[in-house]
Write a structure and sequence with these properties.
This protein is α+β, with helices and mostly antiparallel strands and about 375 residues long. It has one domain. Helix content is about 30%, strand content about 25%. It has nine helices and eleven strands. Strands 6, 7, 8, 9, 10 and 11 form a six-stranded mixed sheet that branches. Strands 4-3-2-1-5 form a five-stranded antiparallel sheet. A hairpin with an 8-residue loop joins β6 and β7. The longest helix is centred in the N-terminal third of the chain and has 32 residues. It is globular.
Length: about 375
């Protein structure tokens, strides 16, 4: 889910064989041999066709795309509040003495708690982070992953005049800064010690975080799943603050760090439910192809309903259009890996859950 930072946006042939013979038994034997041969050829041919089909099958969930570097943000993309204002501008993280012991804290609080208190917590819309305390220096640190341009910009695009394709301001990144705001995390949320590690393990973790941060650049709000039940097919995984926390915990377990919690470790997920998605293409293949003009227009109209700063009247009109599109037409356009997918929506369409994800164990 989102960070606790204010949002910029409000929103056989088998051929016939004729045997010329007077020997009925011989003819029958030949027919049997030909039938067996034909069936064998047919099965072999079908297997080859099936292999060709399955070898190109879509992988689910769709793998999150990684990059070799983080691109510079477009100047058009501006955040109401700066990203990671207390952290080092170049992303540096202090190294710990190898003999140091560092306490690990699970941090959780309602989204926008500073503005709305525990209101969003009542709907289980929570933000997650990890805290650290050096036993050697006594210093505390907070590490979290959130949107560079606030949640709305990462979830929905801007529809700009002069640009045929929707314009996305979507990046997410890790933020590391000194201090833990105890009141912020405990007032309506959680601040719990869940483990301890060495300075060596901490330094290994921060190197992994920097590598992960450089290659995983975009935020994904939605988890798209076939059914609202356990073991249902997942089409797309979210990539947000809680997923970053999960990845970090798993990496710590890989490093041999033991983690445990006295309370249930639940995390927020926002689901969309749909049948098997259909791949549509990217900006150039959709919005620069005259033959796909209708599709391009439909995608633009769909996202236009999510535009920011609408009047009450426009918001009501947009909500009705969205209800018609998602619930009645059962359609949703998902932007994932900088490509568009069509989702044939299914009841209950959208759902916010607060699911338990146990802390990983050391293997």
């Amino acid at each position: 889910m989102s960070s606790n930072h204010p949002d910029l946006l409000s929103y056989p042939l088998v051929g016939n064989v004729i045997a010329k013979t007077n020997d009925t038994k011989q003819c029958r034997r030949k027919k049997n041999r030909m039938f067996t041969l034909s069936v064998t050829v047919l099965i072999t041919a079908w297997s080859c066709v099936y292999c060709k089909r399955t070898s190109g099958r879509q992988e689910w969930p769709v793998p999150y795309r990684r990059f070799d570097h983080r691109p510079a943000a477009d100047p058009y993309c501006q955040a109401l509040y700066p990203f990671c204002p207390s952290g080092e501008s170049d992303g540096r993280v202090p190294r710990m003495a190898l003999s140091d012991r560092i306490d690990i804290f699970r941090l959780q609080t309602p989204v926008w708690e500073f503005k709305y208190g525990d209101l969003l917590g009542k709907f289980h819309i929570m933000h997650d982070a990890i805290g650290f305390r050096s036993r050697d220096t006594g210093k505390n640190y907070t590490m979290e992953w959130y949107e560079l341009f606030q949640l709305g910009n990462c979830t929905f695009p801007h529809i700009r005049e002069g640009k045929s394709a929707p314009f996305w301001c979507n990046q997410g990144a890790a933020c590391f800064f000194e201090g833990i705001d105890d009141l912020h995390w405990t007032q309506n949320g959680t601040l719990e010690k869940v483990g301890q590690m060495s300075g060596t393990q901490f330094n290994d973790m921060t190197q992994w975080v920097q590598d992960d941060n450089r290659t995983g650049i975009f935020y994904e709000t939605w988890t798209v799943q076939a059914e609202p039940c356990p073991n249902s097919t997942i089409w797309f995984e979210s990539y947000d603050c809680s997923q970053f926390v999960h990845r970090t915990y798993r990496k710590l377990a890989d490093f041999g760090v033991k983690l445990s919690s006295a309370i249930q470790t639940n995390y927020t997920k926002i689901y969309l439910f749909s049948g098997e998605p259909s791949f549509l293409g990217n900006d150039s293949s959709i919005f620069e192809d005259a033959a796909k003009k209708a599709l391009a227009e439909d995608i633009r109209n769909f996202y236009y309903a999510f535009r920011p700063h609408q009047s009450v009247k426009d918001f009501i009109i947009s909500f009705i259009k969205l209800f018609d599109k998602v619930v009645l037409e059962k359609s949703f356009y998902l932007f994932y890996n900088f490509e568009y997918w069509y989702l044939p929506m299914k009841p209950p369409y959208v759902k916010i859950t607060y699911e338990e994800v146990p802390l990983p164990s050391v293997v």
